[in-house]
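yo

u said u wanted the structure for the complex thing, so here. seqs first:
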Amino acid sequence: MKKLLPLAVLCALAGCSSLGVQPWERDVLARPEMSLDADPLDAAIDDHIYFSKEASSGGRGFGGGGCGCN
Amino acid sequence: MSSNSLQSKLAAATCALLGTAATQPASASDADAWSFDSSVLYYGESDDRVQDISAAVAAKRDFGDERSLSLSLTADTLTGASASGAIALDRVQTFTSPSGKATYSTPARDVPLDDTFHDTRFALTAAWTQPLARLYTVSAGLGFSTEYDYRHLGANLSLARDFNKRNTTLSLGLAYSQDDIDPVGGAPVPLSQMLDVGDGSNKLGSDSKTVLDLLVGFTQVLGRNTVLRVNYSYSDSSGYLNDPYKILSVVDPATGDTIARVPAAGLAGSSGVYLFESRPDARTKQSVYAEVKHAFGKPVLRGAYRFMTDDWGIDSSTLETSLRWPVGASSYIEPQLRYYTQSAADFYRASLVSSQPLPQYASADFRLGEFDATTLGVKFGHRTGGGNEWSVRAEYYQQNGSVPGEQIIGHQRNREQYPDLSAVIVQFGYKFGL
Amino acid sequence: MTRRIHDWRAHLRGVLLCLFAFGFSLTVHAADSLSLERYRGKVVLVDFWASWCAPCRQSFPWLNELQAKYADRGLVVLGVNVDRARSDAERFLSEVPAQFEILYDPEGELAARYDIPGMPSSFVFGPDGALVAKHIGFRNADRAQREAEITRLLSNAAHD
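structre next:
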């Protein structure tokens, strides 16, 4: 993960399109458990609990990943 | 209502707006127009502190061509109390209740807790999502929550754009909220003293705060089995940021014990010198969040890290990991682990020393102190023949804090310096479609 | 002399059988070519789909409708499946039946050759075999326009 993170950021900055998969190779990414927004209710509940007991909150965001359809 | 609802829930509602109005990715099994996700949760802290039971329902209506409406309703009832910020003593302590109409006591050697409360909160959110053009998605939402001493109203807007055959997504989100606080008995003048029953001379009326949140997100498919998300968040709060029920003990510089106080003749009131806390009226937070999901065949591993820093001097790190492991053809088990650490706010004080000048800002709220917290949990889920899914989740949360050495005075060394917290969370969930 | 003629026929039968088996296996197991020559004179709509693609679930009833409506006017709908596992495709087809020909491209060779830009992707070929249109994704709102494009092509073909 440490090696991938700066690489991914660099890719975004450089606008390179070599990182990723072809549209027909998104079968695994289309699985619900691979969604970054899987279980939004759990995430909201957790965020709510931790916000009321700690000084930090949120940060998760939205969008991207998945089947990439349409 | 105590610390638990005010800042906590309100800001949580605001921040949650940017996170939960999210588009669910289309999955080939979604044939229903309406899909529901419901949950019932029990949260219970040890030592009879806070207990919370909540029920939530989230509904999503798919209008085709990636347009959808998401609605959610949450209701929870909170009972119990959390640490008020006063320090424990070797004698019984009496405090005037927030309403100013009664007193409550803490036994000797116990960490003082706020006056016990009962509160019911309702929260509602709504969000509309649709494509703007083939690679653009826009989402707009509203949020509202109410409880007897707090009301929150918020709006959010976000835009996402895909690049590189939808391998890369950039998103931008904005949320604004306006909260109105009407504390029981009125908001106390910061750093004023807790007075006798019936004396509301240091209590003002209601107040408000506004929060502005900005989120810049980047999602990147790294491979057939891996996806990465990196977010930057900026949050600006201004207005009434105090917790009106939190206090600090004023202590003797030699013994470290709270200065005793005698109520006025014929009146009941606090047994010591306690001051209401004071926080700045502005707070700027920034955070960077990174999350990776990787599928190792059927199991999916998730790892996430968030770093937060703010202008109150708090830095925090959160590390989360979970592994979804399939069990049979239609069930899964998911152990979860979370580690959190934060530094204390600049104005965090375990207690105020009577011989020292009063600082401009001071708070003994344990949520602004230095602590580590660990959550250990496991979730089990099962998909029924009809395509519905029920799940059960159990977690154990443990918070351990510390007070800087120079802030521990005299007899405080022999007592519990930080109100450590442990809680059990049990949640039942059910997802279904219509 | 007779034996040689017999041998020649046996050989030819053998060769034809092999070619048939080979050709048959190409269309049933893997497609590395759309073999559009066999559809010269017809309008061909090639749709790349997968069991994990939700808009594909929406597109099939429409594709079935198109094939039924315009088959005798010269429309051929070809569905190219890119699932890695045939069982996934078959499960999808049992829930959402296809009334048009399905080709299987589990290795993604056809998908790569046509460099499909998204899922699902539709290519419309005219009667002369030339690519007329490329559609990325499936939206209910685009159905009328896409149907009009096909009827226009079919009318032009009829007039030629």
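The first strand of chain C starts at residue 43 and ends at 49. The domain at 31-159 of chain C is CATH 3.40.30.10 (Glutaredoxin).
cya
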